Amino acid sequence: MDKNTLHIIETISGVRKSSLTFAVESASEQLRTISNKKVRTEDLLEIVDFAFKHGWKTIKLYFMIGLPGCEDVDEAETIIELLHKLSRLGKRKEINVTVSPFVPKPHTPFQFEKQMDMEYFYNVIKKIKSNAPKHVTIKNHDVRSSFLEGLIARADERFGHVILNAYLKGARLDSWHEYFNFDLWKESLEEKFPKWRDLLLPRKKEGTYPWQLIETGNEKAVDVMMERTLDLASYKHPEYRYSEFLNEENYKEAMKNFEEKYITADVIRFIFSKTGYGRFVPHIDFTENVKRALRMANVPMSYSQGFNKREKLSTGFPLPLGIESLSEIVDVELFKTLSDEQLQEILIKVNKSLPDVIRLVKVRRVSEKQTVMAATAAVKYNVFFKEEGLLEKVMDGLKNRERIEKRSKDVAKEYPLCEVVHSFSVEDNLLSIVLFMGKESSMRVDELIAGLASQSITALQGVSFLKICQYRNSNGNLELIE
Asked: What is the pLDDT of residue 291?
């Protein structure tokens, strides 16, 4: 981050001004220099002032505390002083700050540095929160989690006994604060690794360490950066490094090239299956998997204009979690026309980038203007029953009930069954059922089956669901969407 940022801010000032994020690392110029950050405090103030004047109302700042050299400066005081200066630039602006404890990591220029103890971090954070401007929001990463992260990062195989012991004592889901029990870890450290405090100390460069068994290919680069860090640490005042301005013509050319992606030259329909453990992939994650695979296959996707540019694609109704599918349709707009041969090549490329439980089964060109969701009038499911008794209850409900209850946000409402179910058939333990979609009365297939059997959804453990296809309404008749 340096003054070149001003050109970028000015260029993107036409987009939605939600917030700008700056990874400042430290409020101390001395520590920023050691961390190889180019920006001076004066430059940071100028950048933020420029952003506020160009319409941004929120900025986010990320600070690291406990960086090498931190014992030579008052970290809390430098952060507090900087925040007061920033707050005066925009008195009605929102400033959000996140403070994170620094953790030395293997294979980095600071891998041999000292890790500060928890008391140091707590004191710095407490002082910042007590003295920061009132309208500045301060958040911090969990000091205890960072402390454990640092111990694990540079420990040897002996620490495995600590982890196992904590697990046996009940440590579970520690990334969620509501489950994190630090006392279990303290007990395990004292029982299995009494000299754990040594892991916080600085290391000698000439020593032998556990992570040196792993060759990353970046060892020489890390050594060079370590030497540079030592050189910079000797400066009482940080050097100011002038940098060349960004080549404006280059990024103007890049933006011009991107504008070509706004047009729609073709629409391609991709049909995916989602089976096995794929039934546990939520709709949003499925869509992101598809986008990523299409990008990796170099599919020329069109993008929307406006504040948040997104790929122009449409999907059908979200599939309930736990249900497999043979027909998840995604229509994608392209800014280039592709030949049939290229489409078949894309099918192969996309599948190479997808997990095995999600497969692209068909690709074809379409000319429809309706989105997949708008076109879908009904969906066909196959429902497999392990218990004949449960199937009999469902069939009795389908044949004899006139109305079915649908619950939505704790509000129950009854609908005629004929407005929910289009048709059904049964053979052995397999029920094929077609449900209406896009109507107020439309129901999830699992909720419908549970309601017909007068059971809760959790009682359907012996039932599996498979989406077969979807239909559009064509002059009062259902027509397959393919």
From this structure: 94
Whether 367 contacts 415, CB under 8 Å: no
| CATH of residue 365 | 3.30.70.580
Candidates 355, 333, 194; CA nearest to 268 is: 333
Q: Are residues 295 and 198 in the same domain?
A: no
User: What distance in Å separates the CA atoms of residue 141 and residue 391, rounded to the nearest whole number?
Assistant: 52
Give the integer Cα–Cα distance in Å for 266 and 334: 5
Q: Is residue 239 part of a domain?
A: no
451 φ, ψ (degrees, to nearest 5) = -65, -40
Residue (of 473, 478, 463, 442) closest to 318 by Cα position: 442
Question: 3-state DSSP call for residue 313?
Answer: strand
Owner of token pair 């005042």:
237
State how many domains the chain has: 3
Q: Round the average pLDDT of the chain to a whole number and report it.
A: 86
Residue 115 per-residue DSSP state: P
Nearest to 354 by CA among 295, 301, 297, 290: 290
Is residue 265 situated within a structural domain?
yes
Is pLDDT at 63 greater than 80 in this prediction?
yes
Q: Which position has the higher pLDDT, 220 or 361?
A: 361
Q: How many CA atoms lie within 13 A of 139 on its CB side?
A: 8
Q: Does one domain contain both 352 and 466?
A: no
- Check residue 5 and give its pLDDT: 61
**Which residues is 364 bridged to in the sheet?**
269
Range of the domain at 417: 376-480
For residue 248, being part of any structural domain is answered with: no
| H/E stretch holding 422 | strand 421-427
Whole-angstrom distance, CA of residue 257 vs CA of residue 238:
40
pLDDT in tens, 196-237: 888 888 888 877 888 787 877 776 666 766 665 555 555 444
Assess if residue 252 is contained within a domain: no
> Which of 355, 373, 391 is where one domain is finished?
373
Q: What six digits make up the tokens of 439? A: 């109507």
- Predicted confidence at residue 235, as pLDDT, reads 47
